[in-house]
Amino acid sequence: MIWLRVSGLFWRLSPLRVTAFTVVSVLLALIPAAQIGLVAAAVQGVADAVTGDPDAGRTALLAGGALLGVGLVNHVLGTFLQYLDTLLRLELTARVGEWVMRKGTRLDLEQYEDAEIYDTMQRAFQESSGGRVYQVFTQLLEVARELVTLATVSIVLFTWSPWIALVILLSPVPSVISYMFFSHKAYEIEYERAPDRRRLYYYQHLTTTDHTYKEVRLFQLGPHLLERYTRLVRTFFDVDRRLARRQSVLGGVLGLVSVAASSGAVLWAIHTTTEAGQVGQLAGYLQAVGSIQVSAHGMLLGIAALYKDSLFLGNLFAFFALPERRLKGGTRPFPDTLRKGIEFRDVRFVYPGTGRVVLDGVSFTLPAGECVALVGQNGAGKTTLVKLLTRLYEPTSGQILVDDVPIEEYDLDDLQRHMGVIFQDFIRYELPVRDNIGFGRVEAREDTARIAEAARAGGASAIVDELPQGHDTVLGRHFEDGHQLSGGQWQKIALSRAFMRRAPVVVLDEPTAAIDAEAEAEIFSRLRDVARGATSLVIAHRFSTVRMADRIVVLENGRVIEDGVHQDLLRADGVYARLFRIQASGYLTEAASS
Ligand SMILES: Nc1ncnc2c1ncn2[C@@H]1O[C@H](COP(=O)(O)OP(=O)(O)OP(=O)(O)O)[C@@H](O)[C@H]1O
Fold first, then answer.
1. How far is C-alpha 457 from the chain's CA centre?
2. 71 and 165 co-located in one domain
3. Is the CB of 113 under 6 A from ligand 1?
4. Which residues pair with 397 in a beta bridge?
5. Is the CB of 338 under 6 A from ligand 1?
6. Pair 291, 257 in one domain
7. Does the CA dihedral 560-565-569-572 come out positive or negative?
8. Contacting residues for 159 by C-beta, under 8 A, at least 6 apart
9. Residue 271 belongs to a domain with what CATH number?
10. Which of 358, 367, 498, 591 has its CA 20 to 30 A from that of 400?
11. pLDDT at position 588, please?
12. CATH number, domain at 382?
């Protein structure tokens, strides 16, 4: 049914152009039959004129003139078809890319983090140029056109000799069957290969991108990665070569059957027409033999190609059919300022498809307008908590309440609009500063005063002031005139993006890991001001940052083990106090020995 869906896509693209394309294609398909009839009439006319028929010369001339007219029509229609072809192809290429992007923005994070679904996406992206969709459409029309040609030419040929016509018609069948068989095999191989192909692209990415260069170069990973790449490519090549060998042997043998059948038919035609002295018929016959064979072959190969391309296109349609935004919100608008705060109540979480409990009954509160720091060793579940709070995932059990209302009752888009979040792996947009900060509130990206204020809040003002084109300086090195920043400078820009949002809830996941201590202290001492009284959650490993928070929550193995203010936690002499002293003593020892 892929054919139907492809036709549907084209119809939606431009009903007028698709109709014109179809009509012109069918008209062109009638031309070979007309040419055969006219050639036969012209040649027979000449032959009769030579043997003394007085009217035959005029008939031959008329047939020749008509042949010229048909040739002209063929040329004009052919040119017009080419023009329509270009238009439809351009339009489709742009639209398929657009559809793929739109779909990508409507999926859940869970789908991106699921290896199987991710493979489906990768397979679909290979089709996102729209090339194959277009191919299927033109193949469909090609098959229809050859069918019309075949039918009309067969009528002529069958009236002369049904047996010869049948032999020629059936001759391509064996080779087409083998083509279909091998197409299916090729598709199966390619399907199984998707994870390895991803690995291949990944090795390529590691050795050809700017931000991987330093490490790959200094660890001298280049040759090793190249070897992994080559090993995979060689495995692919071995499998493909075996398939190609089998295909050419079988295809070659079956092709011989086709050649033998058509050559035999030509000989047979020469023999019968010579005996009857029908020169015109012989000329028409020879042309018809060629034409019918080309059309039958074209049609059957078209069907086989359609079959193969439809299999590949199935991936694209499978991607389009992926369920969208399964995570639904309610209708309640998210508050512009929190009244009470956020409460995690006995939250448990297991990543879908895994058996490991990442959060095991987490309970704590984020009082409105306060800043809570979340600490814990790597893998304790801190970022996972943020994913739940921002509703990128749903708790397996337990509840998150905002101002005593379960989080899922709030409108999902509105909730996310009211959260200023920066993750550890924030994006470095290779775009102007205006976008890098303005994307925090995309509707306000032209509001230079607001961007400047956000930059101040994130400690990025001095960086922006020094850039050659200020807010319009392109960052990064991917595009012309791009200006590269240091890691800490990028992080300040990302922080500014979070503040650009002016959200009532601010979540910063290791926001200052790359920022120098002085700037970090400056940003956090002003956090309450810059966050405009927002309720904030900060994940940090540096205790100089953590101690500035109103409350501190310590997470270990998915459980809250301590919760309180800095001084109380120190007095309690638990895990927090131990970790704090380790860091503090490191600094003190260094200070004492210097
Ligand atoms: N998408 C995922 N699918 C399955 N497991 C995951 C996924 N993301 C994280 N995990 C697992 O969940 C656990 C908690 O991860 P999380 O990223 O929340 O830790 P974290 O406390 O933020 O660590 P860090 O301090 O290193 O950033 C880890 O054991 C990790 O392996």
1. 36
2. yes
3. yes
4. 348
5. no
6. yes
7. negative
8. none
9. 1.20.1560.10
10. 498
11. 55
12. 3.40.50.300
ipTM of the complex: 0.97
Domain edge (last residue) among 502, 531, 555: 502
CA 551–ligand 1 middle distance (angstroms): 23
Pocket of ligand 1 contains residue 355 by CB under 6 Å: no
Measuring from atom 31 of ligand 1, which residue has the nearest CA? 379
Cα–ligand 1 centroid distance for 510 (angstroms):
14
Residues 55 and 155 in one domain: yes
**Other CB atoms within 10 Å distance of the CB of residue 14:** 16
118 lines ligand 1 (CB under 6 A): no
Residue 473, domain member (yes or no): yes
Strands 419-422 and 405-406: unpaired
pLDDT tens readout for residues 275-301: 766 778 778 777 776 777 777 777 777
User: Is-contact 107 124, C-beta < 8 A?
Assistant: no
- In this structure, what token pair is assigned to residue 591? 């200070």
Residue whose C-alpha is closest to residue 364's, from 377, 373, 355, 351: 373
Q: Which of 163-172, 180-189, 460-469, 582-591 has the highest mean pLDDT?
A: 460-469
- Residues 382 and 464 occupy one common structural domain: no
CB under 8 Å, gap of 24 or more: what pairs does 198-207 form?
198/118, 198/119, 198/122, 199/228, 199/232, 200/229, 200/232, 200/233, 203/228, 203/229, 203/232, 204/229
Residue 283 has what pLDDT? 80
Q: Which of 457, 474, 502 corresponds to the end of one domain?
A: 502
Ligand 1 touching residue 331 (CB < 6 A): no
Query: Could you identify the residue written with the tokens 């489709």?
Result: 92
What percent of the chain is predicted at pLDDT more than 70? 94
What integer is the mean pLDDT of 182-204?
A: 85
* Count of structural domains within the chain: 3
Answer for the pair 40, 47: CB distance below 8 angstroms, yes or no: no
Centroid of ligand 1 to alpha carbon of 379 (angstroms): 5
Q: To which residue do tokens 């092709």 refer?
A: 255
- pTM of the entire predicted model: 0.73
Q: Is the CB of residue 379 below 6 angstroms from any atom belonging to ligand 1?
A: yes
Instruction: Give tens-digit pLDDT for 385-400.
Output: 999 999 999 999 999 9
Residue 579 covered by a domain: no
CB atoms within 10 A of CB 196: 13
C-alpha of residue 545 to centroid of ligand 1, in Å: 22
Measured from the CB, is residue 354 less than 6 Å from ligand 1?
Answer: yes
Structural domain including 435 reads: 420-502
**Which strands form 505-509's sheet, in the order they lie side by side?**
419-422, 505-509, 535-539, 371-375, 551-556, 559-564
Q: How far is the CA of 380 from the centre of ligand 1 (A)?
A: 7
Q: pLDDT tens digits, residue range 150-169?
A: 888 877 777 777 887 777 67
pLDDT(589) > 60: no
383 lines ligand 1 (CB under 6 A): yes
Tell whether 94 and 224 lie within a shared domain: yes
Is residue 461 within 6 Å of ligand 1 at its C-beta? no
220 plus 146 within the same structural domain: yes
The reply to whether 167 and 219 lie within a common domain is: yes
Same domain, 103 and 179: yes
List, as own/partner pairs, every contact residues 61-69 make where C-beta atoms lie below 8 angstroms and the sequence separation is at least 24, other chains included: 63/38, 63/39, 64/38, 66/38, 67/35, 67/38, 67/39, 67/42
